[in-house]
Design brief:
The chain is α/β, with parallel strands linked by helices. Helix content is about 35%, strand content about 15%.
Length: about 550
């Protein structure tokens, strides 16, 4: 009898412990209870696919995100939500989502919380993909490594392409704010409001939210900083290659976007909003590509984006928060400007003359080409500056001048290692080539990379090298990743990337006597800016 009672006592204790474990994994949000999951052997609690707004389908297509509806009982947050409607545009994207759907407004939370009361710093990350592709479930954005640093890490899905950035005069008329075309950015804003209202339950501090992103995600960060709707919801910002400043993905006047939308509706033989909203999502997506009319352009709508970003930042009307911002040393290859021409000095001069006309002599001074090697380097620099470096530089420069907050600028220089010998059907993305098939092998590039390509820093910065099986990562790569992850984590925690064991990184302010940046590589070191004349030259072109 004694033994039976003892056994019953043990069972009761085990049941109690199991119940306690489940309670720890359940968190009450403003819409209801969610139950997270833990990866085997990990203390990090993960909540996948939490709705932060209603599905933007049917009559809610092309409307501002509406608050998520409440649910009863416990919602299992054990799988990622749907990814937004998109085409397979980039070979380096891999989703863990529940498939593609207009019903895509979900976010994911990785938290190290044990009590729900820690008030930990928060990272909200927006994915890249040209505002036309991407998803918060991509392994390279996984928040576990940041969570292990004591940070509540969140990825956010938002509407893309024609579903997120379509304008039309009738949409503007029906909007309570007389706007159209910024639905994807409004989704991000709604997610930030959700974070403000709910992150404390996940152990986060709503007053210590840093927003971050790469490429279109970085462009999104610049927009949310500039927006009067969002600027009060953030305490810091990280931008990796991109800002919503001419020449890439910058907002256009609302009337211009409305005119494009009217033309598209006419091609679709849709005379009313009801007819446009009745078009099946797949057909709408296919139609965009069939008429070669990408919809990834935001609008200066007087609501989310009241003026152009340079005007907002010059006036000091943006969020006055610390900014960590930078780009990669070779964002795009020289072919982006040379096209099919061989990289000889003669061909380079010909292409520059065709592109810049009477500015050719100044371009050749700033981007010289006396040999094939110098041509490749200068053409790479010119193509990269025009693509995304200049706009990122302009963002950093304006923030330093008008915010009264420190700006920490970097250049990521680590070139990825060789691809693994057997890659299956994987593709490496923007850099290099790959054969198809189960025994695929890398195709050696004719011209070796002269720097780090666009998007190649993501896995390093977020501590996710292990998730990318395409490359044969080395000890040096993991060293670079540890450095960059620490810089980012320190910045998210304190607004300052510096910390024990890291090379000292001085900020840029309006009073800086010289402009420094951190060169992030196997040997990371602070360097002084030497390319300012290039950016000032482009400034005259793009800011005229």
């Amino acid at each position: 009898m004694k033994r039976v009672l003892l056994t019953l006592g043990v069972l009761v204790q085990l049941a109690s412990l199991n119940s306690f474990s489940q309670i720890k994994d359940q968190i009450t949000t403003s819409n209801g209870i969610v139950q997270g999951v833990r990866e085997p052997g990990s203390s990090i609690l993960i909540f996948k696919g939490i709705p932060y707004a209603q599905p933007p389908v049917g009559p809610l297509r092309w409307k501002e995100p509406q608050p998520a509806k409440n649910w009863k009982g416990i919602r299992k947050a054990d799988h990622f939500g749907h990814n937004a409607m998109q085409k397979n545009l980039f070979g380096d994207m891999s989703f863990r989502s529940s498939g593609m759907s207009e019903d895509c407004l979900y976010l994911n939370v990785w938290t190290p919380t044990k009590t729900g009361k820690e008030k930990l710093p928060v990272l909200v990350y927006f994915y890249g993909g040209g505002l036309a592709a991407g998803d918060g479930s991509e392994p390279r954005y996984d928040g576990a490594s940041m969570a292990q640093k004591g940070i509540v890490s969140i990825t956010v899905n938002y509407r893309l392409g024609i579903f997120g950035f379509f304008s039309h005069p009738d949409l503007t008329k029906e909007s309570p704010h007389h706007t159209s075309g910024n639905y994807g950015y409004l989704d991000q804003h709604a997610a930030l409001e959700w974070v403000r209202d709910n992150v404390a339950a996940f152990g986060g501090d709503p007053n210590k939210v840093t927003i971050a992103g790469e490429s279109a995600g970085s462009i999104s960060v610049s927009v949310q900083m500039a927006s009067p709707l969002s600027k009060g919801l953030i305490a810091g910002a990280i931008g990796e290659s991109g800002a919503a400043i001419n020449p890439t993905l910058y907002p256009v006047p609302l009337a211009e976007a409305e005119a494009h939308g009217t033309t598209f509706a006419e091609k679709m033989n849709a005379n009313t909003l009801d007819e446009l909203r009745a078009i099946p999502a797949e057909k709408l997506l296919d139609s965009v590509f069939s008429v070669a009319t990408p919809y990834s352009t935001a609008t200066i709508d007087g609501y989310l984006i009241p003026r152009s970003l340079p005007e907002i930042f010059e006036a000091g009307e943006q969020a006055h928060v610390p900014l960590l911002v930078g780009w990669n040393s070779a964002e795009v290859p020289f072919q982006a400007i040379m096209r099919a021409e061989a990289p000889t000095p003669e061909n380079y001069k010909k292409v520059v003359e065709q592109t810049f006309g009477d500015r050719t002599s100044r371009i050749l001074e700033l981007y010289p080409a006396g040999s094939e090697e110098e041509t490749i380097r200068s053409a790479t620099a010119l193509a990269s500056d025009r693509f995304i470096v200049y706009s990122t530089w302009k963002w950093a420069d304006l923030q330093a001048k008008t915010s009264g907050q420190p700006v920490y600028r970097y250049v990521f220089s680590r070139i990825r290692p060789a691809m693994t010998p057997k890659m299956g059907n994987a593709t490496p993305g923007l850099a290099g080539g790959v054969q198809k098939g189960d025994n695929a092998k890398p195709v050696p590039p004719k011209y070796p990379a002269v720097g780090a390509s666009h998007a190649s820093e993501i896995e390093y910065a977020l501590g996710n090298l292990y998730s990318n099986k395409v490359y044969a990562w080395t000890a040096d790569d993991y060293k670079v990743s540890a450095t960059m992850l620490d810089y980012f984590a320190n910045f998210i925690k304190t607004g300052n990337p510096n910390g024990k064991g890291l090379p000292q990184w001085e900020p840029i302010t309006k009073d800086s006597k010289r402009i420094n940046y951190m060169d992030i590589n196997v040997k990371s070191e602070q360097k002084e800016e030497t390319d300012r004349e290039r950016y000032l030259f482009l400034d005259k072109i793009y800011m005229k």
